[in-house]
Amino acid sequence: MAIDAVMFDFSGTLFRLDEHESWFAGMVDDAGTPLDAAAQAELLRRMTAPVTLTVDLDDEHRHAWENRDLDPALHHKAYLEILRQSGVPGREQGEALYRTLINPAEWTPYPDTADVITELAGKGVKVGVLSNIAFDIRPAFTALGLDAHIDEFVLSYEVGAIKPDPEVFRILVDRLGTPAERTLMVGDHTDADGGARDIGCAFALVEPLPTAQRPDGLRTALREHGVL
To answer: In the chain, which segments carry CATH 3.40.50.1000?
Structure first.
């Protein structure tokens, strides 16, 4: 069956938080040693892991973690604690790194993101972005001139539902005005993004590799479903 609409996940699918050394300038661990490349990469992994909890949290912070994508305040609370337990000493350093995480300008698009979205819009295929997230990612698209090609954004903290809840997929499908069976969900997590299959959507998996290592993952996934 032909695909009339494509829904994309954000983190690890269209954009990725690829680390930059400047983010960690002057940052040291508890022993006063500057964070090396491995420690920096591990911090970013812990900050962007979509489902896996990487530290032990007390009940208060576990509640914040479990609801982080529904409330910006809880998102802030959970991740500051994760940074603290991951060896970032002092609230000031944690706050600085957290601000980087939620700054859309710091997120790197995959090499084929702009071309794929533009081509889909040019073919008359509706495009939606669906993300479990607690901050506004629209500026990342505006900076690339892609906002005009995105028909709808559904962000968990704005609609009060998170993937894989079928409701959040229904919200976007309804807004796009396309039948679920003619809609493709593209994402990097089989459980969270693959939940779209529960309402009848097709699903394509991409790997959340560093952007330089995945030059055409989106295009390949769409071609496999006969979209491009």
So the answer is: 5-16+107-224
